[in-house]
Amino acid sequence: MSNANARVAYRNARLLDPASGLDQRGDLLTEGAKIADFGPSLFADGVPEGIEVVDLQGQCLAPGLVDMRVLIGEPGEEEKDTIKSASRAAVAGGITAVVLLPNTDPVTDEVASLEFIARRAREVRLVKVFAYAAATRGTDGNEITEMGLLSRAGAVAFTDGTKAIASAKAMRRALSYARTFDKLIVQHPEEPSLASGGMMNSGERATRLGLVGIPREAEIIMIERDLRLLELSGGRLHFAHVSTGESVDLIRRAKARGLKVTCDTAPHYFALTETDVGDYRTFAKVSPPLRGEMDRRAIVEGLADGTIDAIASDHTPQDQDQKRLPFAQAACGVIGLETLFPLTLELVHKGAMPLLKALACVTVKPAELLGLPLGRIAKGAPADLIAFDLDVPWKVDVAAFKSKSKNSPFEDRPVQGRPLRTVVDGRTVWQFEG
Amino acid sequence: MTGSPHSTTVFPHRHLLGIEGLTASEITTILDLADGYVEQNRQPSKKSSLLDGRTIVNLFFENSTRTRTSFELAGKRLGADVINMSSDGSSVKKGETLIDTAMTLNAMHLDALVVRHADSGAVKLLADKVNCSVINAGDGHHEHPTQGLLDALAIRRRLGSLDGLIVAICGDILHSRVARSNIHLLNAMGARVRCVAPPTLIPSQIDRLGVEIHHSMATGLKDADVVMMLRLQTERMSGQYVPSTREYFYFYGLDYEKLAVAKPHAVVMHPGPMNRGVEIDSEVADDLKRSMILDQVELGVAVRMAVLDLLTRDRRGTDV
């Protein structure tokens, strides 16, 4: 591991910066925690003495990934994932910054909770850890939290995380009040009374399996409602993990009308469908549920045309006790920190998106949405970087993952491209040891 | 949905977890064998020694007197040791306990495990963990394969064949594992299946399973050969799926007037227990010319004997 004050020269790289469109061979110099310089002829006269040299031998060098939706179990359910285990998983996945959901025990709805997270992150000192604060106290959907004080304490945005803000009144107030601090409200778009009791996407598969279905309309209706509330209240609204074609259409039209709305999706919504539930495979139980093939394609199109702004891992660790159950009883969620990058690259390898555009969805775009000065290669920018092999084929091996939980539906999936080195603030915090 | 391959050739399945995936020929194998057991059950001495020394456990996580008794009689009439285990659910809320239960039973060297559970897929979860054969005695809203088979046997014995028949399945299809097993079975055997229910009780895209959907008994029962009524779960009714039992009976309860549009020889079935005056009128239910409800109960034992016989042949060293 390199010294934090050192200067490091990354040579013979394919430099990729989705923010500026840079894609060329060259070198990059970090100095301490910052990017000092970069370019095709940076070391034309050789690297001066005293600078550590990392020869990337033509591999890619890009901004580190910013994962805007990560759930961990600390505090409250440390057996699932801690800030330490999730940080290790994140850097192994090429992620240099994570944003934690507030659905812990206790809920992150007070300044002290944010301070706790910051302290643990400083102790672990791997990935950069940011946090959402709850939009409503206890994520109970009624009273809005102290958004001003929480913002000052570091909350990057407000959300009830895995729960929808179901009350229209609470959502209106949250959107309206958050304007004061120019903070995003992030919604889990699922109308709870319509989704209640549901286990998977409503349709033929659910009917065959005898599982209670969740109609797609549970998501669509909530998005339609919230867009109305956004028009009424102003503010900035972001929909997390959209999963249906209609959701994408609604957001596309709202953006065209000039509304301040954005959205993200997660890899399982463009890489899997409801058929992956198979014979009651609880690893494929997620919220919102996996949809059909038409929706999956619409999500890919939404990413390609930029309607969907970002891709987040939606990392939701669940231990065996929560997953080795009958499907109805099993908890929702998949881990995603270590599959976010290769699954995003699937879009590139399949021709759905150019490389820089796909990288933007996991770097500069989420950073911009949350007002974080990350996700780009620029002089003076934080030296958060990922070196990766774009083409190497490998198979997902969940047993080797650093996350404490192993609930991934992608076990043994053939993927292409993997991180080789992750750099946070100029320090190499992880290296692939094949 | 029938488990991993088994060495017998005519019925190559280790478990019976559902009807989906069974071929017409496999279904016929079971029904033909069950026909023989019907005759055995009608003899003064009903017991054979086929499964002497074998152990069968009925593991019921959900109450069911008639299905459990039927399986118990089936096992005992074949000479097996049958043990009933039940659970009120409180001790098996945790999945580890469900799997632990399976592992514990497995260590006791069972020959067959008959399982009922309130959750769809729970029986498969158990089947994946044990070495013995597993028979699904009803899992959630998923399947109840022996009910489907006994219904098929009842129809075949009364009407000669299933091929080409019009079968109307009426009532709470949304929550019915019986309906799903019957749909798969009847389709496999060449019958034409209709589902008749208010829209609130029709599962999403059930037409993709190869059924016609009707919301009116008048069109749904027209020219039907078989009218299969399902139990309406009254606890689910208030203000949810249908407004009241009174309204439900008015539109969907089977009485002679509604039955009149079916074929003159049409038979009436019900998996029981019946809600008289809710989904079926007592007059129809008790009409022995039309109603096959008691035949279904009788044939259930024979079908379960046939299934136990077939699934244990491999370990008995008997080929089909």
From TrEMBL, chain A:
InterPro entries to which the protein is assigned, alphabetical: Amidohydro_3, DHOase, DHOase/Allantoinase_Hydrolase, DHOase_cat, Metal-dep_hydrolase_composite, Metal_Hydrolase
GO-annotated molecular function: allantoinase activity; dihydroorotase activity; zinc ion binding
Domain Dihydroorotase catalytic stretches: 58-247
Positions contributing to Zn(2+) 1 binding: D314
Cofactor annotation: Zn(2+)
Catalytic activity: (S)-dihydroorotate + H2O = N-carbamoyl-L-aspartate + H(+)
Assigned keywords, A-Z: Hydrolase, Metal-binding, Plasmid, Pyrimidine biosynthesis, Zinc
Identification of the protein by name: Dihydroorotase
TrEMBL record, chain B:
Cell cycle among keywords: no
Pathway given in the UniProt record: Pyrimidine metabolism; UMP biosynthesis via de novo pathway; (S)-dihydroorotate from bicarbonate: step 2/3
EC number: 2.1.3.2
Reactions this protein catalyses: carbamoyl phosphate + L-aspartate = N-carbamoyl-L-aspartate + phosphate + H(+)
Occurrences of domain Aspartate/ornithine carbamoyltransferase carbamoyl-P binding (ranges): 14-156
Residues given in the record as L-aspartate binding sites: K94, R177, R231
GO BP: 'de novo' pyrimidine nucleobase biosynthetic process; 'de novo' UMP biosynthetic process; amino acid metabolic process
GO molecular function annotation: amino acid binding; aspartate carbamoyltransferase activity
Family recorded in the similarity comment: Belongs to the aspartate/ornithine carbamoyltransferase superfamily. ATCase family.
Protein name: Aspartate carbamoyltransferase
Species this protein is from: Azospirillum brasilense
